[in-house]
């Protein structure tokens, strides 16, 4: 990218409750709580500040014990975006200052990816929000409703996000034999959405006031609220291998093994 974000803040929302993996942010990963692992990865980016946003005293104390900056936020926020908006107020972030939202269950997030999504807002100041996508290479991922897909316009801005396989090839799914998966997915530019976001602070603070869109409710995808209200989302398409986050006990074990294997090298 020709323009690089020189001064931006990473915010990492962290809540203790999780239906599939209780107390997930505090889960031990090779001797450190997961939320600390995530913060440490984010600190390897060019961000001027990395802050955890939580509503739980235990997470707050764990972050303090490991020298991770942390803010206590309201317990009754309906979404992570509301929590981030409060953080912007508490930190005095405003105007076009850039905030990157890193999920608290991404202990293998690529630091360079954080830089890239922040830089995208420098490159496209008319967009209040940016995110990341990665080419889909497996047909099972393309058809999986848990894998969110995105299609782009000619500016590399999001047209739509969906859990359905988009773009849908009418001629390839009309009963005829499906072509070789990798070649087919490349031919239709199938993209997986990666859940990392950059925002202009002024937009992030206003986001909770935007009415929930019908499409957001149907797809269960909060980013559709932005498109429904006529705002643009710039998308960085990365070739980096993006490790999956931690949602289940199986994911946690996979991440633990990764850290143990690499720490012992």
Q: What is the CATH architecture annotation? A: Alpha-Beta Complex
Count of domain modules? 1
Looking across the biggest beta sheet, what order are the strands in?
Answer: 5-4-1-6-10-7-11
- Rg over CA atoms, rounded to whole Å, is 19 Å
Secondary-structure element order, N to C: EEEHEHEHEHEHEEHEHHHEH
Number of helical segments with 4 or more residues: 10
Superfamily at the CATH H level?
Spore Coat Polysaccharide Biosynthesis Protein SpsA, Chain A
Question: Segments where pLDDT lies below 50 for 5+ residues?
Answer: none
- Per DSSP E runs of 2 or more residues, the count of β-strands stands at 11
Shape: globular
Protein described:
With 265 residues, the protein is an alpha/beta fold. It has one domain (8-263): Spore Coat Polysaccharide Biosynthesis Protein SpsA, Chain A. The protein is 33% helix and 21% strand. It is built from ten helices and eleven strands. The strands form three sheets. A seven-stranded mixed sheet has the order 5-4-1-6-10-7-11, sandwiched between helices. Strands 2-3 form a two-stranded antiparallel ribbon. Strands 8-9 form a two-stranded antiparallel sheet. Helix 2 (57-65) links the parallel strand 4 and strand 5.
């Amino acid at each position: 990218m020709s323009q690089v974000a020189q001064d931006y803040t990473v915010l990492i929302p962290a809540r203790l409750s999780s239906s599939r993996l209780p107390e997930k942010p505090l889960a031990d990963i090779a001797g450190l709580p997961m939320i600390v692992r995530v913060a440490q990865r984010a600190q390897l980016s060019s961000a001027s500040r990395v802050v955890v946003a939580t509503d739980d005293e235990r997470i707050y104390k764990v972050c303090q014990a490991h020298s991770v900056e942390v803010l206590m936020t309201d317990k009754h926020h309906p979404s992570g975006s509301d929590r981030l908006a409060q953080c912007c107020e508490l930190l005095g972030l405003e105007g076009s200052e850039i905030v990157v939202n890193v999920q608290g269950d991404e202990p293998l997030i690529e630091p360079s990816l954080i830089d890239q999504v922040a830089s995208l807002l420098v490159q496209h100041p008319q967009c209040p929000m940016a995110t990341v996508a990665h080419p889909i290479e497996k047909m099972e991922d393309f058809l999986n409703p848990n894998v969110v897909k995105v299609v782009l316009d000619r500016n590399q801005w999001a047209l739509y996000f969906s859990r359905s396989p988009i773009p849908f090839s009418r001629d390839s799914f009309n009963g005829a034999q499906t072509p070789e998966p990798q070649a087919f997915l490349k031919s239709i530019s199938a993209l997986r959405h990666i859940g990392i976001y950059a925002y202009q602070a002024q937009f992030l603070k206003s986001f909770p006031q935007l009415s929930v869109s019908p499409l957001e409710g149907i797809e269960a995808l909060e980013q559709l609220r932005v498109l429904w209200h006529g705002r643009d989302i710039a998308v960085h398409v990365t070739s980096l291998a993006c490790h999956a986050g931690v949602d289940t006990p199986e994911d946690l074990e996979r991440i633990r093994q990764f850290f143990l294997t690499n720490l012992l090298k």
